[in-house]
Amino acid sequence: MYDRDVNSQGWFANYIDTCNERDVRELTGIRDANTLDTHTSRRSLLFEPFVIDELVKQRCNQGQASDLYFWRDRTCHEVAVLRDTPKGLQAIKIKSGRTFASDWPKGLHQWEYLAGAGRPASQIIFGGDAGCHREDYELLS
Prior knowledge:
Elements: H1 8-17, H2 21-28, H3 33-38, H4 40-61, E1 68-72, E2 78-85, E3 88-95, H5 106-115, E4 122-126, E5 132-134, E6 137-140
Parallel strand pairs: 3-4, 4-6
Antiparallel strand pairs: 1-2, 2-3, 5-6
């Protein structure tokens, strides 16, 4: 899903998937739940791979192939997951933040411009408590 040369954090996230709990604590510096509350950069190291794992499990449980892709252009616009659906590729941005930030949809907007009309609505999955609909994408918590 990730190209090591294009996205080093993504490569690190895939490496974390193969580690046990003790290894993860050593690699990330996360010692307890309080660390996750106060250090958002460390929380993001676990949040994105967790969401991707859940998306893969969801597809596998439905008997579907795990057709999930990563997209990034040369100007650093990126989408964490492109999910293959019958209506086309659906863009999903994953953010560990608890409150919405106005720059989150930038990669989605670039992808939507390139993908054109007729695609499924984009989604942002984030670490907050309540989801909602904004502009032309869905905000899920």
